[in-house]
What we know:
Elements: E1 9-13, H1 17-29, E2 33-37, H2 40-50, E3 54-58, H3 66-76, E4 82-86, H4 91-99, E5 104-107, H5 112-128, E6 135-138, E7 141-144, E8 149-152, E9 155-158, H6 161-172, E10 178-179, H7 180-188, H8 198-210, E11 220-223, E12 227-230
Parallel strand pairs: 1-2, 1-3, 3-4, 4-5
Antiparallel strand pairs: 6-7, 7-8, 8-9, 10-12, 11-12
Helix pairs in contact: 2-3, 5-7, 6-8
Amino acid sequence: MAAPIAKKTILIVEDEPHIVMGLKDSLEFEGFRVVTASKGKEGIALARSESPDAVVLDLMLPDINGYNVCEEIRRWNSFVPIIMLTARSQETDKIRGLDAGADDYLTKPFSVNELIARMRAIFRRAQRGSTAPEAFDVGDAKINFAAHTALVRGEEHQLSFYEVELMRLLVERIGQPVSRDEILSKIWGLESLPTNRTVDNFIVKLRKKIEKSPDKPAHILTVYGFGYKLVP
């Protein structure tokens, strides 16, 4: 008899009980294993002991903020997907969260169905595999998909889960335009919205790490009104 498939573990770090209960019930119904923490330091400890497959992290916590939690997790785990929850809608707060190591963000109030869609996309993408090689050269950058790094002119940059998956998709379609809609659907599990800047934010992050002149990219090119394409 085949061994049962292990459930994916999701860590929720959130201090609002009704949000925790709603997320936990919904995610467990979808077949995930859920562990929770109501404080930042507790969340850091659980991230170490439980080795979750994904983290849902609130920005405002009673002891330390989500930025600090995210940075601490990233010290030893550069690749676990981290989705930050925030009641703030300012673009600067979202950018700060991404800079701290978060892969994505949801602004409260948010749709639980949207969060579940993102989780499904994370694990579906990981299980599907990729036709991209394990290493790929883009200009001066050597991308190592297995190690989740970009070596650029002797300096090594860590790549987050979504950065790696976005690069994989662009490499799979090298030289071909890939639409924002397709990127959102395949990597984030989202439908396209006129105000959704998720893909653009991650393109900016990748350009900063890979391009010699991020403001004048030579490799990750914008296809205006459509999406992006990769030119090695």
